[in-house]
Amino acid sequence: MTELPAGQRNAIGVTLGLLGDEWSLLILREALLGASRFVDWRARLPISNAVLTARLSRLTDAGLFVRGNGYRLTERGADVWSILLSIWAWEDRWVPGHVERLPGRVHRLCDKPFDPVLVCSACDAAVVASDRSLAGGFGPSGSWERSVPEATTRRRSGGGEVGSLNAGLFPETTALIGNRWSAALVGAAFQGVHRFSDFQRCLNSSPTMVADRIRTLCSLGVLSDDYRLTAKGLAFFPVVMCLVGWAQRWYRAAEGPALVYRHVPCGADFVAALDCSTCGDRLARKDVVPTS
């Protein structure tokens, strides 16, 4: 657990600044699949030496890797698997244009293809964004200002921010969480905001910037013309909640958590978990097998 100073970026802002970057996500994905040496990532990803060196250094400084005989994932680094699995499933379902076809997924325990299902870790009930089963919002360190990363826009592997949407394996995810204002707008939408003036108030940004971000999310099919989340947008909820869960397991602001949610049906504090859609068992990193 990393302690964050009072009044500064909270766990959400720090995490978006670290993981709202396609190269970092791809490096972590390959590490979970066995990459541990510089040459492993160079062989598996179309990444330059300079970019790879910079990302590995940043992820190591953040405690996701340790140096030794290569780069070894720490517990913090390996714990990103649920975020990556949620992204993988969302991109596979909702984003048809990729440079290469995403692999399938088999759950080792039932030996069947599956999708991850977001559930409450306390009662194992499925949770979806539209069922209003979660109550809560910002906690002691939570605010819009503290929840956005310092960096403005993450450059993606294909070079533009949205432009070519088949630039990498996580193209639209990066468009959603790789820009500080897009990430904040997505967060506001999941908290029920759908009026332009309310988005502007939450983001505390210029009307031009807010309009540009809304156009981006509408062009991706995440927001509808009336600025409400579409089915595609609502389906991004597991990514958001797994990211929030990871953030608050590994970063703690002095004042307390950034977001606090209660699962209304069971009354427990909500902690995200993932179940197998086929057999219903809880998913574990070691039991998710990619298939060609």
From TrEMBL:
Residues 140-160 are annotated as: Disordered. It comes from the Bacteria. The keyword Transcription applies. Keywords: DNA-binding, Transcription, Transcription regulation. Pfam families: HxlR (PF01638). GO terms for molecular function: DNA binding. Residues 4-99, 167-255 form the HTH hxlR-type domain. InterPro entries: HTH_HxlR (IPR002577), WH-like_DNA-bd_sf (IPR036388), WH_DNA-bd_sf (IPR036390). This is DNA-binding HxlR family transcriptional regulator. It comes from Kutzneria kofuensis. The lineage of its organism: Bacteria, Bacillati, Actinomycetota, Actinomycetes, Pseudonocardiales.
